[in-house]
Amino acid sequence: MRPCGVFDKSYALDLAIIRTWQHWVILISALILLFFFPLFGSYYIISFMNYLAISVIVGLGLQIVSGYCGQISFGQAAFMAIGAYTSAILTIKFGFSFWIALPLSGIMAGAVGIIGGAPSLRIKGMYLAMATIAIHFVVIWLILHMEITGSFKGLFPPPPSLGGFEFDTDERMFYIIMTVMVIMTYAARNLVRSKAGRAFVAIRDNDLAGEVMGVNLYYYKLLAFFISCFYAGIAGSLWGHLITVVNTEQFTLFHALEYIGMLIIGGMGSIPGVFFGVLFIRILNELVMFASPVLAKAVPWLGTSPAAALGLSAFGLALIIFLIFEPRGLAHRWEIFKASYRLYPFAH
Amino acid sequence: MTGFLQQAITGLMIGSLYALVAASIVLVYKATHVVSLAHGQLVAFGALFFWLFLGGLGLPFWMGLIPAFFLTALIGLLIERLTLRPLIGQPLIAAFLMTFAIFIALEGVFVLYLKGQTRALPTFLPEGNLDISGLSIPINQLISFFVAILLFAAVSLIFKYTKLGLGMRATAEDHRLAQSTGITVRNIFSYIWILSAVVAAIAGIATANVMDIYYMLPYIGINGLIVAICGGLDSLLGALVVGLLLGVVENVGAAYLDPIVGGGVKDVVGYVVLLLVLLIKPYGLFGLVRIERI
What we know:
heterodimer, A: mainly alpha, 2 domains, two-stranded antiparallel sheet, 14 helices, 2 strands, B: mainly alpha, ABC transporter involved in vitamin B12 uptake, BtuC
């Protein structure tokens, strides 16, 4: 919905994502604030934001394949693992620089994603979700049983460097991660309103009807999987070089479930929804982390370290509540809020 | 050859557990078309309740069994009432995601209760091995195997011959049509969740009979789901056959392939089988093929 008095006087305006000068001011100041953030943020907040940004990249990928294309995928953690391992192997074993390994790991994950998405040509919905769970376990199993991936020990990728400058702290990695996140968000926001994005939505709403309308199901389903896994691979590579250790413990089925949960809470089929979902889940988890020692003291039955278990339950409960009361997610609430303040003195 | 047979029989015993878990999932699907990931938790909680009464309170076998069934059925009923009923009329994938949310929430409770420890059931079935021409079969596993087969027969008979079963089959076909013939669809939903929770509890107790109760126990629900899907989600026979087969394939595959690839085949066989079945026969080996309309 347009703010009052804003009209699209030209085709360019009609196409624009950002329509008013106020939006430009907010966007540019937010970006400037983001990139000067390490100057005044504490170490804890910065590493937390790195974590958030990487989750956002994975979530954007999942949003494209699940939220827009309607193919529920529980394999996102495995594809993230492929990206992380590819990047680690390329930098350690073959001496590639991080800057080449980053896109290559995305492409590698995307290529495996096409194989992983192949079942979507025959099955859909819940069957496909189960197939992606199977793919997750097969991928993780293969990683554990190969020589090159260091098996259970994992790999230790070096931090990236550019012309002698080492990105070896969280503050320094912050710039790389945030730049990638901004680019990826921009790309996703544009992708979903392109021809491909419309084809994805057609497949989500009714694939048979879409096919009748001339959407090439095979091509677009596989494209959705490729893009989604490309995002996951990029995020995995960043993750590996950020914490400089990669092992399969970081990419369990639970992580994949978490990303789907973020989409449900944030809102399926909405790019801002990814941000809402990631923020909600991660902050909920941090709150539980802070609250659990207090709770453990108050209720001795909980034992000494209930944080992990309480986190699980809180996450599950949040999902249940959202599925019952707001299945369209926080993004929908955000839309309602935007509409109401733009119309402010009037009801509609 | 004896080695192969021994592995196959051990696999059959494990397979009967998978078949039971799958049966509880198939039951819910048959009446409500909801595919449930939450049944792994029902299995785990069934085992845990049984342990509470038997190991914790030291009650005799029957005194432990009945309340364990009762409590698990209560959880099943609560899941249906509180979380799945509000979703009636929404896309089925929402119900699937809901069961996965329930799985996570209950997993938290389960982990919280266990606190990283394991619980072993006290022996309540006769011990020892049955030796048949060089093959040895643990008697307690044999008993749970036959219990599983009997249970399958009982559930199939309920579905086929009782009025309740007829109502369930009608509900699965079309909610509105069933309602107009005088079936209370809501009650059918409650009954089916109670029935399937009891089957899940039996599966849990049978599982806890062969392994300790620990934090990974609920994940047998994923194996159950694999079996249910491979067998065809609406086929009890499929659940039984594929469950037994999967147990055998897992065990025999592990015995013969482990030395070649270096261990861990057991963890992945089920998933590979699932992928193959989904690619070749998307509706499962015994499932009803549905034709979709636009």
